[in-house]
């Protein structure tokens, strides 16, 4: 059923219009966020609904949209397969959280100021390529991505330097052994390793990993209790990535900075640090015009940004915090930015409440419900090929993925199929929804949501997504007699790998 028709039906069934929400100033969301219809906060539901319709019609991989105005939630949508209780990896948004921890540590006296030389944190260490520039490098240079180190560890280099760092035994040694190719403070160069070095310095100075320090000094004051933070070989939490949060908790961090570091009467981060962190400190010209202390800075706005479409936008002039999470391709990475400009900021039309618009508000609510679920369809009739290959094993030649064997199982009239395979010597299984609804499976400690359909009489297409992560793949299985062509596309990076396999006579998938 088309999304517009589904929305129309829900609107017609909606209850009678509610009276407008109170316009009283909301309290701090230390426990729960207050909610209201957009009009009560001077925003137009119609534009927000149009944005959700666009997402529903051509979703690039956006998985949540949260809009906070005047400290009140006016939109909080989860797009399937992300469920309301799921955290989401925020990837490089972690860097902005790390910056807040540095500011807190400086204010607490646990860490010296930003003008401290980096090498002072590593007494007794010897580093390669030591010269005047490396000796002059400061914590502030790390925070502004202007250290000048030749890290080559961003997407521009396919993260090659990051892989080398992770493979090394001593990450700080690896980073600081690299040559300096630009005078510190003169050139912006996005670097994951530089952010990792900040986390290592924080641990050395405080005796706590970033997650431990954040729990005590940042998350607990804000009421953030459910989070994850990936560990590193540097005996602590990752600094460049690794943090997972609920979208509304991402909004808490944005709201803290919108309120200049204050939270419910407590100055969690100093106002000076917030101002210094979110002011243009060096020209960037990539994801935003400028960069601060691990924050992207644009005109009248500053933001956290992360791989796969994780964004926290803070717009002080409009008293607005906007959060997106997702699994966006690199080609469509900036679509949330376009939606922010085309729909969200355009929806802000007054400082105070607008007249209630119950029809538009009901349409918006119905879209949130529609996008949060998947419409069940009748499974398409399977072609004869489905039953000809069902239960048959296909064996692959040696390949980069370590994929050795694969078998699909179809049952006539069933709304699901089973995929068995052996990868890296380990047998695994995924359930695939055939009726338009993804089915969940646990695989190597990760939840995967899968659905598939027959594209034609010989081609089966499988969509795989790990909810809460920027992991989205499309596998195309083409059967020609006893031969299988298996094409897998990473929907984030766009990379494609193709393997062929031959049918074997054994009846089960084993290693």
pLDDT < 50 runs, ≥5 residues:
5-24
Percent in strands: 25-35%
Overall mean pLDDT? 92
Q: Identify the strand order in the major beta sheet.
A: 19-18-17-16-25-24-23-22-21-20
Known CATH architecture of the largest domain: 3-Layer(aba) Sandwich
CATH topology of the largest domain: Beta-lactamase
Backbone structural class: alpha+beta
Write the layout of secondary structure elements.
Elements: H1 3-13, H2 45-57, E1 62-69, E2 72-78, E3 88-89, H3 93-108, H4 132-136, H5 139-143, H6 160-167, H7 171-177, H8 192-206, H9 210-222, E4 228-229, E5 231-232, E6 236-237, E7 243-245, H10 247-258, E8 262-263, E9 266-267, H11 271-277, E10 282-283, E11 290-291, E12 296-298, E13 301-306, E14 310-315, E15 320-326, H12 335-347, H13 358-371, H14 384-389, E16 393-396, E17 403-409, E18 416-423, E19 426-433, E20 439-443, E21 446-456, E22 459-465, E23 472-480, E24 483-490, E25 496-504
Antiparallel strand pairs: 1-2, 1-15, 3-7, 4-7, 5-6, 8-9, 10-11, 11-12, 12-13, 13-14, 14-15, 16-17, 16-25, 17-18, 18-19, 20-21, 21-22, 22-23, 23-24, 24-25
Walk me through this protein's architecture.
This protein is of the alpha+beta class and 511 residues long. It folds into three domains: 1-89 and 307-373, no CATH class; 92-246 and 265-274, Beta-lactamase; 384-504, Calycin beta-barrel core domain (Lipocalin), CATH 2.40.128. The protein is 28% helix and 26% strand. It has helices spanning 3-13, 45-57, 93-108, 132-136, 139-143, 160-167, 171-177, 192-206, 210-222, 247-258, 271-277, 335-347, 358-371, 384-389, and strands at 62-69, 72-78, 88-89, 228-229, 231-232, 236-237, 243-245, 262-263, 266-267, 282-283, 290-291, 296-298, 301-306, 310-315, 320-326, 393-396, 403-409, 416-423, 426-433, 439-443, 446-456, 459-465, 472-480, 483-490, 496-504. It has a ten-stranded antiparallel beta sheet. A hairpin with a 6-residue loop joins strand 22 and strand 23. Helix 2 runs antiparallel to helix 12. The radius of gyration is 25 Å and the shape is globular. Residues 5-24 have low confidence and may be disordered.
């Amino acid at each position: 059923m088309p999304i517009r028709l589904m929305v129309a039906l829900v609107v017609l069934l909606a209850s009678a219009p509610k009276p407008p929400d109170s316009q009283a100033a909301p309290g701090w969301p230390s426990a729960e966020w207050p909610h209201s219809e957009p009009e009560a906060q001077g925003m137009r539901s119609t534009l927000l609904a149009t944005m959700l319709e666009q997402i529903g019609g051509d979703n690039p991989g956006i998985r949540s949209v949260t809009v906070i105005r005047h400290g009140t939630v006016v939109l909080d949508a989860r797009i399937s397969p992300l469920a309301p209780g799921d955290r989401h990896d925020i990837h490089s948004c972690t860097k902005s959280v790390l910056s807040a921890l540095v500011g807190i540590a400086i204010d607490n006296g646990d860490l010296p100021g930003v003008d401290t030389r980096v090498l002072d944190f590593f007494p007794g260490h010897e580093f390669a390529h030591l010269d005047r520039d490396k000796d002059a490098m400061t914590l502030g240079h790390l925070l502004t991505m202007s250290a000048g180190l030749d890290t080559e560890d961003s997407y521009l280099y396919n993260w090659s330097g990051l892989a080398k760092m992770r493979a090394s035994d001593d990450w700080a040694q690896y980073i600081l052994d690299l040559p300096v190719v630009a005078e510190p403070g003169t050139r912006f160069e996005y670097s994951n390793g530089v952010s990792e070095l900040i986390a290592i310095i924080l641990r050395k100075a405080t005796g706590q990993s970033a997650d431990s320090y954040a729990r005590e000094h940042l998350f607990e004051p804000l009421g953030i209790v459910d989070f994850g933070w990936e560990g590193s070989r540097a005996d602590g939490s990752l600094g460049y990535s690794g943090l997972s949060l609920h979208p509304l908790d991402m909004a808490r961090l944005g709201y803290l900075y919108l309120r200049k570091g204050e939270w419910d009467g407590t100055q969690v981060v100093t106002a000076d640090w917030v101002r210094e962190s979110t002011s243009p400190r060096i020209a960037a010209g990539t994801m935003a015009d400028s960069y601060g202390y691990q924050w992207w800075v644009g005109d009248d706005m500053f933001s956290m940004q992360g791989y796969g479409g994780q964004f926290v936008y803070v717009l002080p002039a409009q008293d607005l915090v906007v959060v997106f999470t997702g699994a966006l391709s690199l080609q469509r990475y900036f679509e949330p930015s376009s939606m922010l400009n085309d729909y969200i900021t355009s929806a802000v039309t007054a400082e105070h409440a607008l007249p209630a618009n119950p029809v538009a508000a009901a349409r918006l609510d119905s879209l949130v419900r529609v996008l949060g679920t998947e419409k069940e369809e009748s499974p398409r009739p399977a072609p004869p090929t489905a039953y000809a290959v069902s239960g048959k094993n296909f064996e692959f030649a040696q390949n980069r993925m370590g994929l050795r064997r694969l078998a699909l199982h179809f049952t006539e009239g069933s709304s699901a199929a089973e995929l068995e395979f052996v990868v890296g010597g380990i047998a695994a299984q995924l359930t695939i929804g055939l009726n338009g609804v993804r089915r969940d499976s646990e695989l190597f400690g990760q939840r995967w949501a899968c659905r598939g359909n027959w594209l034609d009489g010989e081609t089966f297409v499988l969509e795989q997504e790990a909810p809460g992560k920027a992991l989205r793949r499309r596998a195309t299985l083409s059967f020609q007699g006893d031969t299988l062509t298996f094409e897998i596309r990473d929907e984030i990076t766009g990379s494609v790998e193709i393997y062929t396999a031959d049918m074997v006579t054994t009846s089960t998938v084993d290693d």
